[in-house]
Amino acid sequence: MINRTMFDEVMVPNYAPSQIIPVRGAGSRVWDQSGKEYIDFAGGIAVNALGHCHPELVKTLQEQGQTLWHLSNVWTNEPALKLAKQLCDATFAQRVLFANSGAEANEAALKLARLYAKKHYSSEKTEIIAFKNSFHGRTLFTVTAGGQPKYTEGFEPLPGDITHLPFNDLAAVEYQISNKTCAVIVEPIQGEGGIIAAEPVFLEGLRALCTQHNALLIFDEVQTGMGRTGKLFAYQGYQVTPDILTTAKALGCGFPIGAMLTSHDIAASFSVGTHGSTYGGNPLACAVASRALELINDPTLLAGVTQRQQMFISGLKQLNQKIGLFRDIRVEGLLIGCELKEAWQGKARDLLTQAQEQGVLVLTAGPDVLRLAPSLVIPYPEMKKGLQQLAQAMLAIKMGF
């Protein structure tokens, strides 16, 4: 019988998954092996933007699955070309590179930034400025760019010439940046770092400093892209245009795909043979992502994200007034972080476990922050039910369960 015990027998122990195994999903509900139902406020970590098994995405996958699965990059394919054109039309971009994940998209962005700087300026223009508590993926390059030492311990020696500065501290960047800086990489909203939004003046300042020093501004929108903030991409709400943008997670709404978006001039540095991916741009992933983009990049759906944001803000504040577990509630579209008060610091994982017991799936963003990233189209009755279940979990934590 397939059960949770089998994980400990056959899987590499780099994860510690829950004791339940979900086996079926529909919309914003999932069911485990015993048939218990859960409201999904986790969304596969901001991946399932249209919920589980959206009928339009299922239909697209079935149709493409009966047409063409894989070619390799010796040839291109129609779904990849269509998706690339859609992304260019919907953003600042003129060129797109496809990958399989956010980490791969960020890896490509960082490599491209270094290559572009060396080709256009100097072989010494190699510094990358990143920010503390950021997260950009788990390849050795991207995990080094991420500003969380716990993810790099034991993997030394690490790639060099990466400088970490405090997030939202423009003065620190102004002091550090120089003509040796090739790129600044930043999340418009730090996800794994606790749902911390960049201040508009900070991103505006980064844009100006990068322009002044001929450095590329890279926006990591792996978690914030595809409607999560109420805009198709978060940069559109800040009105600051990056040179390179990376996206993944909700791009395929659960089918693995990532993308790096940039301009024609910058993309030209990736000449034939400089970078590649066997599966990047495969027809199955691109067909699903193309339909997902059509569905998400819709004014009515994006307006619905803002409406649901307000309902979550109201509901969470009401819960907190009664229970008093959170010191701060940070909401950016449907990316939500609830920071625990000092008395309950370190118990975010316990709250996740209690929430699961009550029938609602949530996430954490570090040990002190509960994270919610539900479907962008979660029905209002399920929002209400999930919040009621979360309230019971909060009470259990407060009472010491």
UniProtKB/TrEMBL annotation:
Q: Which reaction does it catalyse?
A: N(2)-acetyl-L-ornithine + 2-oxoglutarate = N-acetyl-L-glutamate 5-semialdehyde + L-glutamate
- Cellular-component GO terms for this entry: cytoplasm
Compartment(s) where it occurs, according to its Swiss-Prot or TrEMBL record? Cytoplasm
Residues annotated as binding N(2)-acetyl-L-ornithine are 138, 277
User: What other comment is given for this protein?
Assistant: May also have succinyldiaminopimelate aminotransferase activity, thus carrying out the corresponding step in lysine biosynthesis.
Q: What is this protein called?
A: Acetylornithine aminotransferase
| Annotated cofactor note | Binds 1 pyridoxal phosphate per subunit.
Functional pathway: Amino-acid biosynthesis; L-arginine biosynthesis; N(2)-acetyl-L-ornithine from L-glutamate: step 4/4
Indicate the family of this protein.
Belongs to the class-III pyridoxal-phosphate-dependent aminotransferase family. ArgD subfamily.
A GO biological process this protein is involved in?
Answer: L-arginine biosynthetic process
Q: Which HAMAP family does the record associate with it?
A: ArgD_aminotrans_3
Q: Which residues carry this modification: N6-(pyridoxal phosphate)lysine?
A: 249
A GO MF annotation of the entry reads:
identical protein binding
User: What broad class of enzyme is this?
Assistant: transferase
Q: PROSITE patterns, from UniProt?
A: AA_TRANSFER_CLASS_3
